[in-house]
């Protein structure tokens, strides 16, 4: 399968999963499952679906939201008038916390998700958590942050008359309390033998 086909299959699975959960929510609200006989004591019933596009971590997703006859159903998974699925707000907040401007966030969302959101939309998300972001930025720093770098170099090595691809791993560590650099070295075969 191509990358696009895998992405389409993943989005179709996500769509089916969300719609199934929304259907279960409506069944709980009405008091009977889809396909079951409606109890005589209730007059409310299913009334088809309405289309809605929500922004997800993987881009826009078109959903069929179930409805009830009297309009009292209020989904918890994707509330009424909500255009974002959980996780999308977190990305906006993370970019804002890293110092990106609203214009930069808007450009990133357009480039990565193919969706154009307004400045007001981004501001409403960031304003909702402004106190938490400020508290995070003012938090006390840890007394020590150890740093470790991992890297690998791929090389071809002749071994027993065959050329093998191997990775030479290197791990470097630095800690303020022990300023000398610690290191580790390793060698590993990446795949089977090849001619050459």
Briefly summarize what is shown:
The chain contains 5 helices and 5 strands.
Total DSSP helices: 5
Helix content percent band: 25-40%
Strand content: 25-35%
Question: What is the CA-CA span between the terminal residues?
Answer: 31 Å
Mean pLDDT equals 77
Order of helical and strand elements:
HEEHHHHEEE
Which blocks of ≥5 consecutive residues have pLDDT under 50? Answer: 191-196
For this entry, what is the oligomeric state of its chains?
A: single chain
- Structural class of the helix and strand makeup? alpha+beta
Strand order of the main beta sheet, please?
3-4-5
Give the overall shape.
extended
Largest sheet: 3 strands, antiparallel
* Total strands: 5
Our Rg estimate from Cα atoms comes to: 26 Å
Characterize the structure shown.
The chain has 196 residues and is α+β, with helices and mostly antiparallel strands. Helix content is 35%, strand content 31%. The chain is extended and about 80 Å long. The relative contact order is 0.08.
Produce the secondary structure layout.
Blueprint: H1 3-30, E1 46-56, E2 59-68, H2 88-97, H3 102-113, H4 119-128, H5 130-137, E3 147-159, E4 162-175, E5 178-189
Antiparallel strand pairs: 1-2, 3-4, 4-5
């Amino acid at each position: 399968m191509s990358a696009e086909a895998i992405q389409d299959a993943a989005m179709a699975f996500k769509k089916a999963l969300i719609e199934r959960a929304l259907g279960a929510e409506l069944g709980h609200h009405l008091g009977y499952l889809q396909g079951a006989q409606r109890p005589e004591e209730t007059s409310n019933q299913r009334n088809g679906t309405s289309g809605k596009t929500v922004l997800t971590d993987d881009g826009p997703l078109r959903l069929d939201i179930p409805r009830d006859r009297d309009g009292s159903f209020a989904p918890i998974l994707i509330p009424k008038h909500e255009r974002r699925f959980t996780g999308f707000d977190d990305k906006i907040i993370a970019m804002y916390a890293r110092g990106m401007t609203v214009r930069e966030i808007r450009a990133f969302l357009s480039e990565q998700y193919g969706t154009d959101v307004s400045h007001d939309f981004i501001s409403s998300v960031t304003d909702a958590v402004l106190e938490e972001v400020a508290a995070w930025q003012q938090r006390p720093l840890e007394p020590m942050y150890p740093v470790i770098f991992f890297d690998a170099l791929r090389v071809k090595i002749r071994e027993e008359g065959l050329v093998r691809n191997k990775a030479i791993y290197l791990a470097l560590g630095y800690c303020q309390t022990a300023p000398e650099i610690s290191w580790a070295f390793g060698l590993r075969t990446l795949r089977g033998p090849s001619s050459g």
